[in-house]
Amino acid sequence: MNLVSEAKAHGGTQGVYSMHSAACGTEMTFAVYMPPQAANGPCPVLWYLSGLTCTHQNVMDKGEYRKRAAELGLIIVCPDTSPRGDMVPDDVTNWKFGKGAGFYLDATEAPWNENYRMQTHILAELPAVIEQHFAADLSRQGIFGHSMGGHGALTFALKHPDRFKSCSAFAPIVQPSTADWSVGAFERYLGKDEESWRRHDATRLIEDGARFDAFLVDQGTADSFLDDGLRPWLLEAACAAADIDLTLRMQEGYDHSYNFISTFMDDHLDWHAERL
Amino acid sequence: MNLVSEAKAHGGTQGVYSMHSAACGTEMTFAVYMPPQAANGPCPVLWYLSGLTCTHQNVMDKGEYRKRAAELGLIIVCPDTSPRGDMVPDDVTNWKFGKGAGFYLDATEAPWNENYRMQTHILAELPAVIEQHFAADLSRQGIFGHSMGGHGALTFALKHPDRFKSCSAFAPIVQPSTADWSVGAFERYLGKDEESWRRHDATRLIEDGARFDAFLVDQGTADSFLDDGLRPWLLEAACAAADIDLTLRMQEGYDHSYNFISTFMDDHLDWHAERL
């Protein structure tokens, strides 16, 4: 692990680090906020997965999570959203595919399957590095995210309900296998067999039997992606049919930006802390 | 006034606007956060002046001021730090002079005196626009800032103690007329007559008789600019000699970044709210 930067913030330490990712075949950057309580022993880990076009930095700059995380004693880990580097194939004309748009899955189609393996990076590689280098209690992990990262959080929680004790999302893509802005990426990363897409789609995972105890989802009513890309009612229907406890809050007047996320950040941190 | 963007945040509205500045001879951008209380009547106005290299955006992204401002009912206005545009003269090799480094004064030396008139922009032009377009109570104004913007806040408060009821600063440049990173700018903006520099220097203003009721200043001990650029002990001495109530807090381990500012933002907002 390499140090990029560290600074004291809200009594803890906001760090940025990088590691060589065997899964992605490239150096990967990530942010870790260590609360002051970590000086006295391991703290629970809350993973934040970011949305399309983002890096680890957007939420670090604009998420406003440090104050409450310091009060609650939560470690916040913020991975990147895709592999990076000149050697990584990309589609530079498309912000919904390639760099900045890894969709938290392991691609199976060439040439993307060489580097676009964000699921293995986040579920296997990064936890090992976090466990080795930080005072982290990995028996207490939660996960949340925004938009594409909400999709990542929901699907990872549904795939690993024993690992993650809590899950929430801001304006998640709940059914990426049919949403305008993600179906193209699914086809290129995973191929044309739509059966394989179901394993990376929150609503399909639930239909196919995956379960999780409870989700908190906030969604702004002024979000320009609401009707075509996000469609939280699909998650609502899937959870109702599967008897999953979903708290879906439609937030009047809020858009898709970090102005929305930061407004409800404390609520989400409280949600996770209660379960960790 | 032109709308650049608006978004709901913490129950209020974070907006970015621009206006034609006669003082600066260019379009000037500024940010305004309107708390939810403004829907019921005019609210007090707190001005935030940013540091070297910044625009209105740095504190808007990283300052973490909206939650508490919404609780306290404070309007937060964040001007830019210099004139902008291709027609504005600059020294692109120097981050401590020219664009991003207006030092909150009206330049008197050519060619800088054509555009670098940030004092008039912030003290005369912007308040008129704020009064016209927002539910602002200009009988209740406070001012704070960071680094070069701390210099701006302290000097504006000392020059206008009847206008500003409260003043605070994060890691301010307290004696810019002698600090390494500002003396060059003072000479180019104001000419070689150092007497004129005293009117834009907090410690010199105090020595020359200016007074203000009370200041709150936070300063990180791990700030790499502490010894050469900031030197809060000079303000401490000036305030002591003038019987000005200075609360100077040395904050262990904090640097010069927004990690420091955001940590103590709530304390400063509380300080201002008590006095507004």
Automatic annotation (TrEMBL), chains A, B:
Keywords of the record: Hydrolase, Serine esterase
MF terms in GO: S-formylglutathione hydrolase activity
Keyword Hydrolase annotated: yes
E.C. code: 3.1.2.12
Catalytic activity: S-formylglutathione + H2O = formate + glutathione + H(+)
InterPro entries on file: Esterase-like, S-formylglutathione_hydrol
Source species, domain of life: Bacteria
Enzyme class label: hydrolase
Keyword Transmembrane helix set for record: no
Biological function: Serine hydrolase involved in the detoxification of formaldehyde.
Family listed: Belongs to the esterase D family.
Protein name per Swiss-Prot or TrEMBL: S-formylglutathione hydrolase
Species per Swiss-Prot/TrEMBL record: Pseudohoeflea coraliihabitans
Encoding gene, per UniProt annotation: fghA
